[in-house]
Amino acid sequence: QVQLVESGGGLVQPGGSLRLSCAPSGSILSINSMGWYRQAPGKQRELVASISSGATTNYADSVKGRFTISRDNAKNTVNLQMNSLKPEDTAIYYCNVNGRRSDNYAPFASWGQGTQVTVSS
Prior knowledge:
There is one protein chain. The protein is mostly beta strands. The protein contains no helices and eleven strands. Strands 2, 4, 5, 6, 9, 10 and 11 form a seven-stranded mixed sheet that branches. A hairpin with a 4-residue loop joins strand 5 and strand 6. The chain starts with a strand and ends with a strand.
């Protein structure tokens, strides 16, 4: 299966910034969409931001104007730049990638292992 490796999480103070990265690996023919989800303790997983193959982006209302999602087509990576972080942004962030495998042309949907983001004084 296609695997995703996430990096960039950590502990920051309110108002600080972090940049998350997600690098897919495996037999990939194409990628249709990529996105970031997050899950805080006691809450359900929610969509933070997504980007399509045509570079169309979508953001949760709570992060609009603060977060920016981007993709590097040469490397097949997706990034999430998080600015003006708030304590309510504290959660485990998961990368999600949808596409087709190059070995059997089957569709795939892969999730990263999750990276912890903590915003606290």
